[in-house]
Amino acid sequence: MAHRKLGLPHKTCRHCGLPFSWRKKWERDWEQVLYCSERCRRSHRPANVEAGG
pLDDT (tens digit, 9 = 90+) per residue, 7-41? Predict the structure, then answer.
C-alpha cells in the first residue's frame, strides 16, 4: 500500500515562485525556510545589493 503525504504544509519559493511542501529535514525550522532548494537560496540576492552594484 502506497503512503501518500497529503495535508503537508506548502509555501511558495521567494526566488522562483514555485510551490514546495514540507520536508522532514525542515522539521525544526520550517518557519525560517524561504526557498525551495539550495540553488534558489544561493541565487537570491537582496534588493539593496543589486541596486548598489
Answer: 889 999 999 999 999 999 998 999 999 999 999 99
- Distance of alpha carbon 30 from alpha carbon 3, whole angstroms: 22
What pTM did the predictor assign? 0.67
Do the Cβ atoms of 13 and 36 come closer than 8 Å?
yes
Query: Does the residue 3 lie in any domain?
Result: no
Parent domain of 20: 10-52
Specify if 21 maps to a domain.
yes
Number of domains in the chain: 1
Express each pLDDT in 1-11 by its tens digit: 567 777 889 99
